[in-house]
Amino acid sequence: MTTAAQPTRQYAVGSLVHARGREWVVLPDSTSDLLVLRPLGGADDDIAGVLPGLETVVPATFAPPTPSDLGDQQAAGLLRTALRIGFRSGAGPFRSLASIAVDPRPYQLVPLLMALRQDTVRLLIADDVGIGKTVEAGLIAAELLAQGDARGLVVLCSPALAEQWRAELYGKFGVDARLVLPSTIGRLERETPYGQSVFRPDGAYVVSTDFIKSPRHREDFLRHCPDLVIVDEAHSCVSDTTVGASARSSQQRYALLRALADRTDRHLLLVTATPHSGKEEPFRRLIGLLDDRLAAVPLDTDAGRRLLAEFFVQRRRADIREDFQDGAHFPSSRDTAETAYTLHRDYKKLLDEVLSYARETVRAADGALQQRQRWWSTLALLRTLSSSPAAAVQSLNTRAGVEEADTPAEADRTGERTVSDPADSETPESADAVPGTRLPKATGPTATGTDATGTEPDADADAEEKARLVAMAEAARKLYGPTRDAKLKKLITTVSDLLDQGYRPIVFCRYIATADYVADHLKKILNKKGTEHPVAVASVTGELSPDQRVTRIAELCGTDEEGNPAPERLVLVATDCLSEGVNLQESFDAVVHYDLAWNPTRHEQREGRVDRFGQRTDVVKALTLYGADNPVDGIVLNVLLRKHERIRRVTGISVPVPQESESAMQAVFEGLILRGERSPYEQEGLFAQEEVAEQLEIAWQSSADREKRHRSRYAQLTIKKDEVAAEVDEILAALGTGEEVRDFTRRALGALRGMPAATKQGGFTAHTDALPQGLRDTVSHALGPRHPRPVVFHDAPSAPRGEAALTRTDPVVAAVARFVLDAALDDAGKVPEWQRPARRCGVVRTTAVERNTTLLLVRHRFQLNLPARDGSVREQLAEDARVIAYRGRPDAPEWLPEDEAVALLDARATQNTDPKFATEHIAEILAALPAILPELRDQSAELGRTLEASHRRVRTASRARLAGLKVVPQGDPDILGVYHYRPAPTFPQGVGA
Prior knowledge:
Radius of gyration: 34 Å
Structural class: alpha/beta
Mean pLDDT: 82
Strand content: 15-25%
Number of strands: 29
Strand order of the largest sheet: 9-10-8-11-12-7-13
Largest sheet: 7 strands, parallel
Shape: elongated
Number of helices: 30
Oligomer: single chain
Distance between the termini: 52 Å
């Protein structure tokens, strides 16, 4: 690097300067008084501010290679790829692509383009479970931050998902967010200067929605909240809950979001796979956060649907299957089946007894309130007994939640929330407690007096009922185990078959008691004495905190304390605390519904834990257990689950259960329980269950047909994702193709003593123990201290925890590239020879050329003038690397087409070159480089015009502003590498040669 003293001046974005003993690149936001600088070849973490008035700052130029820095035939390709992988400020129209650790699929670009159309981004992303809503929201956030349209970011989510969001933001998008939870707020406040807020408008945070909604923290958060907000599981903030603490919690969540949305310049992304619960009012509140007009506009009109389409994106799995035809890890199909069992005679006898008890106790109710209380308590007993004998025993020993109700309507609302699975219920992570059956003694008019003998009239009846409940609990205890519990017996057979087929299943249960009961029996029976292949079994329920759930799963799936891998055969038993948000596809590939959910959406959420992007099994399995002679299971299957599946198969649309479903379910259950004469408190038409169920199916089908018609109006369908995907592919190709990255990583690790070895699944393994110390430490930090050894590199877009994916954005691959580039650019004497696999020049004799040909690796810098949403023009710095080549001498070059120049990177030496000759010859070429500098400047200008055209095409597709858009080359291009290819003589072979 050379420097030249010049008077103080205003430096352009992208120009080079020398200060503090090193070279820097001038970044946007620099002024004549303060230069914002990044070290040449450095990362954003190394950015510094320099005051020219106090420190010496002079212009600089990039030093060319030296003749002594000769490498072999691989040197050029390794240096080029290391440079391209290391770019974090690409010049293409998507500014964030160079700095994110994910290669987006074409469909994932659609929400980003919709966002770029809006001055203030307001979107509801409602794609199916498992197809990448987090990535889509992250892409939008990364692009807004990269373009400067957003200063900071906050994610509002459940505390159970906070750590996962933080890991996703950091690992995939390079955003280092702070966790704001009850467990972290004390430390954050201590670290914050007195009188200041924990939140800063330019900060990044992952925040518990339930924590920050409280009056104590809400106002401070609203005052200092960043200008970009992502709300995960947004449906839980508008749920139609009107009972007690849940009502207050839901109202506080909605009030918080409403206050955030009221600031019209705040970007707001709502994320949920279940935007519509079947009830119109919560959905209206949700979309009203995006635009006030959506709260009231008729959505059954073209105008209403077109307005909604501007803010709403929703794709089903079938819509995006074509985007995964390139071998990416996404299941090609989901194999679903129902598995029936027949109740043991003792289990059937107890179920009949419970039905008889339910019928008698509801009919004998004294008043409408007591009838509804008894109705819900007996329904709770029926459901828990259908789940497991352990859940039934706990229910019989627990007070009913409806006992606190003051009116029949309140009893119904409480019962729906605690016994049913209402579509608009809040997050299920804490909804797996067993509902109680026990009610206090009757308190009606006849319960307070005494007869002539001084005895309470209901005393004998109360004692008899108590004895009856005790007897049922004892009968339930006798059903424990697969001998009398046919459901458990069928599960053991089902799980064993799945394990034998190579699957790793998750068994979903409704209640904590059932999950623990199932897990205990599976552990004993699957690992009984003499078992050839041990099975690791663990249960995860709402009794565990979010951190404890993550730890429990990691203990099941990861290595033990001694570094031994987990058993091949795994079973996870869980409640619905894991049915939303938690990614389990890396370790599991099958789902067993041990308990039927009383809401089809819950089944979709469960299966979505394994049927999602990143799943390596091509066909995942989902099995549903049900009792063939259990009337409770029959009602749920026939009224809800099978109808939902039939409508989905016929229409291709999965729509939420209509609002009528809850009344239909109640009608059918009441028909089951209350056979015989009517109670005076029964509502009109209570026994018309067949008619109600039929009306439900009609409403459901109508909703599906209407949704299918409306989907043609969605704005997402007007975006030509393939055209935009072509622009993205061109950008990614400039940053390093997949094949190039795979070849680079394998060659670089081989040169650095990593001993790569191919694997049967594709990819390879590499040892880290012999790597250079600095690289070894970086790899260990990226993978974690307990990562498997040797390190597994997967030839796929994603990799399990502790392993690496052969993509340019993988942290391990990026670390290898950074090490190779830094070693090549450092002075030769500073780094041992074997640690410098890439060199800046070389001379190669090869049959790949017929005339002397010189290849140059050139780095261009550009100032991007990008129109902002507020009408201003924002300056940004971008870099690009190109390979060019010419035949002949530098003073009369014959320039090769780009594809021929790139092909030279694969040329192999066919004859040795004398080192002295190579050094002298490359010195002559380096001395003549000034002669081609005008051509390099012209190529830089042409590349700038090409990049500007690409920006215009993407902005036109997204209807973004164009006024002021310009791409301007900054300074002379840097010549990083010079490689000379000389024709090698060919010798005839054979007799007489």
